[in-house]
Amino acid sequence: MGWVVKPGRLAHARIADFWDTYVRLVDVHKENIALSEELDRLRLELMELSEKAASVYRLEALLDFSSPAGWSTSGARVVAHNFGPLSAVNSLIIDKGKFQGVTANMPVVCPDGVLGRTYKSGLNFTSVLLLTDLNSRIPVISSRTRVSGIISGQGYHKTLSMQYVHLNSELEEGEMLLTSGLAGIYPKGLPVARVSNIVRSEISLFLVVEAETLVDFKNREEVLIMKNSGKIKTQKLDFEE
User: Fold this and answer.
1) Which of 54-63, 138-147, 204-213 has the lowest mean pLDDT?
2) Averaged confidence pLDDT in the chain
3) Which of 208, 192, 66 shows the shortest CA–CA distance to 130?
4) If you average pLDDT over residues 135-142, what whole number do you get?
5) What is the pTM of this model?
6) Domain 137-213: which CATH class?
7) What's the average model confidence in pLDDT over 152-165?
8) Composition of the chain by helix, strand, coil, percent to 5
9) Which of 42, 88, 98, 118 has the most C-beta neighbours closer than 10 Å?
10) Is 137-213 the same fold as 71-131+219-228?
11) Domain extents for the chain?
12) Other CB atoms within 10 Å distance of the CB of residue 159
């Protein structure tokens, strides 16, 4: 009988081992699915935390911005872009309007420098004219040699032009250009651009000066709107910015 029973016992043992292995594999498969779902959840949570950390870093930089005397600032988020070779106006749209006290010709800045000014204010949204736009004019003065001029936009992805700089001016490449406080819109001393190229013209009484912007308009997510408290009076020029 032993010779008859032994093969059956061997087959039973193998079947039992196979079944136990199958059950374990099913459990491992279920565990892998659960672990995979948990990993996806943790990855999503990590992405959310990374985005929050980046947002906190940007907001801290905005909070560190020191307003000139007589000026106050309020934050706003960029909700749309309108710039490029096919755009009529280089501008941003922010999520504050007349209901939040935003009117036309208010300076818009960030920790890196000037972005432009508000020019069309709705009830809850406002368009910001960027300093790269062809209609933008900002009176500036160089940081070291104190040469004055007017920064003019030349279009998206193009350098800025500093106009009305006399041939005998001591302006140097690399100098920072700051708002001069004239024209009654911008306070004095805000960084606007950096001189990148100076060419002496043979047919003009003025230098041909190019400048680079300090702000990354494309990736800007938050901005600061500046408001004059009325205590500081800025000098106005005859031209319209």
Assistant:
1) 54-63
2) 81
3) 192
4) 94
5) 0.71
6) mainly beta
7) 91
8) 30, 35, 40
9) 118
10) yes
11) 1-64, 71-131+219-228, 137-213
12) 17
